[in-house]
Amino acid sequence: MELVTPAIGLIFWTAVVFILLVILLKKFAWKPILTAVDKRNESIENALKAAEKAKEDIENLTADNERILNEAKLERDALLKEAREIKDKVIAEAKDKAKIEAEKILVSAKEQITNEKMAAITELKNQVAELSIEIAEKIIKSELQDLNKQKELVTSAISDKDLN
Amino acid sequence: MRVFIRLIMCVFVLSFFTIKAHSFSPNTEQTNQQQEAYDPVPNIMHHISDAHQWHLWGEGDNAFSIPLPVILYADGNIDVFMSSKFHHGESIVTKGNRTYSIDSHGHIHEGSGLSIIDISITKNVASMLISVLLLLLIFFSVARGYSKNNKAPKGLQAFLEPLILFVKDDIIKENIGPKYQKYVPFLLTVFFFVLVNNLMGMLPGSANVTGNIAVTLVLSVFTFILTTISGNKKYWGHIIKPPGVPLALMPIMVPIEIIGIFTKPFALMIRLFANITAGHIIILSLISLIFIAQSTMGNAGAWAVAPVSVLFVLFIYCIELLVAFLQAYIFTLLSAVFIGLAVAEDH
């Protein structure tokens, strides 16, 4: 019976000591410890979140870089293509121009040649005429120096003229 | 840690001798007489009971015990004196017109028959104060570890933090639910108070604090008070009008429910007290086996029984270590469950 009879003194002291212990530990141990642990958990969670975010950012950045690179490539290709086109165009234009110029030169040359030729022919004709006249003069002069011959000529001319 | 183990061993061996000393005096007398079987009960009772002095070793006049203050309230007066003044019950202490004597059970009586209230610092109170100092020391230093830096816990802090969080998350939060925050300080303190006192009680020569019914009574009364004052409408509704019970059964069910309010903390009180006391009794009984063997079979018998007995004691000691944690866990768990029942909302 001794064992299961609670002693009043021990009850009193246990109650006093236990209540004091709860108050002291609550104020100086449980509160600081649990607050610190909560805070630490929070900071760990935040750190993990930040790391996750950083990873995402890096991924985005890589994707961005790739996109920019692709764009640059496309632009380069476009530029090259344009340049080639321009080059071709320039060359074609130059060719056309040269052709036209050459034709023009050809035509004017031909014209000139024709003109020169005509001038030459005309001059030749004139000289031939002059020469012919001179020759004719000389022939007539020589022919008409002999009186007999003049008479013969007149006679033949009169005989040719049929006086009928 | 090694120092701690060595200390335990030392004290253990010491307490062994305590019992030996107790048993030797009758034995030497008995050598001439007819062999009489050694009776372990008084020794065991002495070891698990509270006392006004902290007896360590020796018997009678050779006894070495630490005197503790006796505080008595009688007839409006508070009398304080050291327990050594009783001289093991042989002397009477006189204070004013009051005379005090102590009987063989350790009860103090007043000469003229005044009723007295004994609020002495007994062995259990002293042991409890030591445990409390230890608890304060441990947890203040742990708390300081948190305020100093934000680094990962180490040492004592690293050992206790999982324990604290286990009690908070897996016992308190799990069983009480969303309103658990209010009960955390009480339940955490209960857990560590019971645990440390259980462990302190395992040091041989120490007091049997959590194996004393007065201590477990106070702890379970706190749980009872907390449960009762936090009981919500649903909790009381279930007691006054248990749902789903036919009207004819009400006269039986309602008293049962009302009794249930008290049996829950009562079971808490008995469980802790009985577990710890039983553990102490088993260990003491196993050691007493050696002296029983000595008294019946002589020294040879004692030497034969001793190794077996020590092995068994070692085994039970390990189990008691487990029980020290287990009972602290169970007391806290059930307290949390009872409070949880009181604050539970409709689902």
If you had to describe this structure to a student in words, what would you say it looks like?
Chain A has two helices and no strands. The termini of chain A are far apart. Helix content of chain A is 91%, strand content 0%. The model of chain A has no long low-confidence stretch (mean pLDDT 91). Chain A has helices at 8-143, 147-160. Chain B has 347 residues and is mainly alpha-helical. Chain B has helices at residues 2-30, 41-48, 123-148, 156-176, 184-202, 213-230, 233-240, 250-343; strands spanning 53-57, 64-67, 69-74, 77-82, 93-95, 98-102, 108-110, 116-118. In chain B, the strands form three sheets. Chain B has a three-stranded antiparallel beta sheet, with no helix packed on it. A three-stranded antiparallel beta sheet of chain B has the order 5-6-7, with no helix packed on it. The A-B interface holds A 2-15, 17-18, 20-22, 24-26, 28-34, 36-37, 39-40, 43 and B 45, 48-50, 71, 105, 117-122, 124-125, 128-129, 132, 135-136, 139-140, 142-143, 146-147, 150, 161, 164-165, 168, 184-186, 188-189, 192-193, 212-215, 217-219, 222, 273, 277.
